[in-house]
Amino acid sequence: MRSHYCTDLSKANIGENVSVCGWVNSYRDHGGVIFIDLRDRSGLLQLVCDPKDSKSAYEIANDVRNEYVLRANGKVRARGEGLENPNLKTGEIEIVVDELIIENPSRALPFVIGDESVNEEIRLKYRFLDLRTSDKFERFAMRSKAAIAARNALDRLGFVEVETPVLTRATPEGARDYLVPSRVYPGSFYALPQSPQLFKQLLMCSGFDRYFQVAKCFRDEDLRADRQPEFTQIDVEMSFCNQNDVMKVAETFLKDIFASCGHDIPTPFRVMEYKDAMENYGSDKPDLRFGMPFIDVADIFARSNNEIFANIAKETKKNRVKALVVEGGDLKFSKRQMQRFEEYVRKFGAQGLAFIQVKEDGLKGPLVKFFDEADVAKLVKRCNLKVGDVVFFGAGKKKIVLDYMGRFRLFLANELGIIDENKLEFLWVVNFPMFEQNDDGSYSAMHHPFTMPNNVDEPDMEEITSIAYDVVLNGVELGGGSIRIHKADIQEKVFKLLKIEPDEQREKFGFLLDALSFGAPPHGGIAIGFDRLMMLVTKSSSIRDVIAFPKTQRAQCPMTKAPSEVSSEQLQELGLRINLKDKK
Question: What are phi and psi of 336, to 5 degrees?
Answer without folding.
Answer: -65, -40
